[in-house]
């Protein structure tokens, strides 16, 4: 078997796969339709749905530029459903070549010295055991009616946007649940990476005690960005070990994250939590996270760092739509009032990108031009990607 991980780690040689048709050309790897992925190698994952498929290549952690030549009607996701390309459509027989950046990581940490506190790996939840996020390979998911001629993968040194947060940020693993964090990559040019370390159920405290923050900080380099969004679980008094009151503890923990980012030369950015979809009698949104939003705004002012106010933008979005229409942006056919589906997550990512464009010019320079504007009070439900997402069934099997 070709030991791809060793090859990439030692030689940094790009991997060049030909899928349709598999070509036996020097310097390229022909992949037949029956080539199943095996540990340390490359090939197709078993989860196939008609023409849709997943393809993996074993790689060490890092950032990779992926260049695909494809046709048909296709959306591309990476790792745990992280959106890379949305709704690419070509004429019959036509192919286009497109590139994007994928961040790959595993759960391992450098073991601490003898008698020092810490651990040798992130303390993952049981539901993360089969996640493509934490394994030793790069996984691509091709959705729609894809024709994929080739996949080229090469290591690349680019700035990285790190995300720390909870279930409203994480790469949700099952359709149709989604978060703004896993949509963000598709809004940036292929000259910056997004490393989403957020996980469901996390708080500022647990993100540290589970060594997730240690893992994130082990990869941060000078010039990177750290977007920090917590609150949904920090406010749960019934979780006494991780509860953070909005006046004292919550701001103190935010400052700790900011300090650790700054110590490494990274740029910290606070993000207020998206509001839950709860309405009052007059049609306005009942604010369940107001104190935490105010605390984040206060810390951002005092620390003189940017703040992306997703709380206010989601309030504007939900009030503009009303409960019935806003429900179409949420998971479980709108029964869930906190977590979004693909369409809702896309709108939140658009709102966040617009905030970046308005407030953080150095980071905004990496945004695609079309991603720099979004009016949460006047969203376009007929936008092609959103309309297609709203038409999808929420009982579709998950990719992993």
List strands and helices in order, with pairings.
Blueprint: H1 4-11, E1 15-18, E2 29-30, E3 42-44, E4 53-58, E5 62-78, E6 82-89, E7 96-104, E8 137-155, E9 160-165, E10 177-178, H2 180-183, E11 193-196, H3 204-209, H4 212-219, E12 225-229, H5 249-263, E13 267-271, H6 290-303, E14 307-308, H7 310-326, E15 340-341, H8 342-359, H9 361-364, H10 384-391
Parallel strand pairs: 1-2, 9-11, 9-12, 12-13, 13-14
Antiparallel strand pairs: 1-8, 3-4, 4-8, 5-6, 5-7, 5-8, 10-15
Description:
With 400 residues, the chain is α/β, with parallel strands linked by helices. It is 26% helix and 24% strand. It has 10 helices and 15 strands. The protein has helices spanning 4-11, 180-183, 204-209, 212-219, 249-263, 290-303, 310-326, 342-359, 361-364, 384-391; strands spanning 15-18, 29-30, 42-44, 53-58, 62-78, 82-89, 96-104, 137-155, 160-165, 177-178, 193-196, 225-229, 267-271, 307-308, 340-341. The strands form 3 sheets. Strands 1, 2, 3, 4, 5, 6, 7 and 8 form an 8-stranded mixed β-sheet that branches. A hairpin with a 3-residue loop joins strand 5 (62-78) and strand 6 (82-89). The longest helix is centred in the C-terminal third of the chain and has 18 residues, at 342-359. It is globular. The model is unreliable at 5-11 and 393-400 (pLDDT under 50).
């Amino acid at each position: 078997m070709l030991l791809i991980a060793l090859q990439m780690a030692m030689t940094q040689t790009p991997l060049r796969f030909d899928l349709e048709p598999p070509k036996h050309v020097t310097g390229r790897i022909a992949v037949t339709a029956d080539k199943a992925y095996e540990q340390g190698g490359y090939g197709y994952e078993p989860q196939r749905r008609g023409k849709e498929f997943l393809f993996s290549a074993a790689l060490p952690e890092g950032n990779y530029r992926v260049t695909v030549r494809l046709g048909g009607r296709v959306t591309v996701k990476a790792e745990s459903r992280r959106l890379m390309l949305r709704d690419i459509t070509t004429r019959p027989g036509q192919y286009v070549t497109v590139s994007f950046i994928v961040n790959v990581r595993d759960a391992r940490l450098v073991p601490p010295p003898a008698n020092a506190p810490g651990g040798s790996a992130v303390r993952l939840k049981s539901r993360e055991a089969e996640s493509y996020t934490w394994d030793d390979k790069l996984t691509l998911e091709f959705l729609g009616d894809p024709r994929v001629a080739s996949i080229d993968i090469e290591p690349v040194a680019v700035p990285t946007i790190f995300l720390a947060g909870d279930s409203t940020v994480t790469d949700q693993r099952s359709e149709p649940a989604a978060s703004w964090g896993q949509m963000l990559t598709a809004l940036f040019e292929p000259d910056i990476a997004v490393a989403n370390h957020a996980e469901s159920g996390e708080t500022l405290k647990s993100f540290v005690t589970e060594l997730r923050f240690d893992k994130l900080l082990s990869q941060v380099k000078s010039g990177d960005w750290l977007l920090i969004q917590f609150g949904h679980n920090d406010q749960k008094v019934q979780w006494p070990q991780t509860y953070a009151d909005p006046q004292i503890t919550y701001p103190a923990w935010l400052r700790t994250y900011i300090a650790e980012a700054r110590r490494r030369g990274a740029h910290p950015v606070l993000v207020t939590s998206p509001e839950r979809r709860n309405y009052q009698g007059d049609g306005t949104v009942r604010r369940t996270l107001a104190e935490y939003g105010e605390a984040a705004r206060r810390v951002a002012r005092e620390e003189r760092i940017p703040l992306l106010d997703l709380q206010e933008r989601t309030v504007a979005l939900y009030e503009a739509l009303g409960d019935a229409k806003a429900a179409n942006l949420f998971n479980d056919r709108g029964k869930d009032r906190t977590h979004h589906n693909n369409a809702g997550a896309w709108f939140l990512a658009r709102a966040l990108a617009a905030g970046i464009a308005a407030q953080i010019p150095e980071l905004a320079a990496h945004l695609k031009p079309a991603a720099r504007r979004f009016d949460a009070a006047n969203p376009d439900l007929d936008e092609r990607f959103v309309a297609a997402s709203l038409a999808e069934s929420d009982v579709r099997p998950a990719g992993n």
